[in-house]
Request: fold
Amino acid sequence: MSAREHRAVVCLALLCSLSTTALPSWAAETLRIGAIPDQNPEKLNRLYGLLAQELSQKLQVPVRYVPVSNYPAAVSAFRTGGLDVVWFGGLTGVQARLQTPGATVLAQRDIDAKFRSVFIANTQSGLQSISSLEGLQTLKGKRFTFGSESSTSGRLMPQHFLQQGGVTPNQFAGGRPGFSGSHDATIALVQSGSYEAGALNEQVWTSALKSGAADPNKVTVIWRTPTYVDYHWVARPVLDKRFGSGFTTKLQKAILGIKPTTANGKTILSLFAAEEFIPASASQYAPIETVGRQLGKIR
Reply:
């Protein structure tokens, strides 16, 4: 090594040392947020990009949205540490917490404490409005699709209510239901006639009507489920160690502090179809765990 090369190496090492010691201990850490991919990627990227900016400003740490390919991938990334904080559905949140002891439920939307699914039908299917659980039996023999296989509002609770009404998945046309992968995909498939009926979360349905993505002349709601608890924010148990004592509480306050009184807050809440975030606890999701075990989604 020449004298010039030696001096360059020494200078580089000194710069690296200075840059490391001059920064706070958390500066090298990035808070990675994620979400189950329950809607189209374009909307999710916009929503969680804005949220990452909001949280970064409030928490004074770098925050990055990391998309995942499917619901199980969100649970897996949370377990292995690829994601620090995740917007889960009821079922995936329970699965994640069972696989990650010490994980903390932070918050839910105001609409999540009493959430609903809707059953929709193509207007050419001949299916009529349903007024009782027993009325779900008119879906037997029909082409029916759920959303993701791990969706609470697009599969778990709809299947639970179908079971209560005396309908099993093997009684749909072809001996099994379809799985569209997401709520907006369910609307598109039923609207096109690929499936005669399907189930999805009511919030996405309402948004689709407002945006024009759902055409009421082609697809309509035939039944609304009873209420249940659904989506929630869950944090990994190591955040206080990585970002400093009290960080998890600070994160919870930052989420609860998103209000429609600021332009960014108003947009975020609008995209979440909520008025505000409210405190939530793990005990609220015990009924979801019970149903998940009954239907074999939790073992």
In short: Residues 3-21 form the longest helix (19 residues).
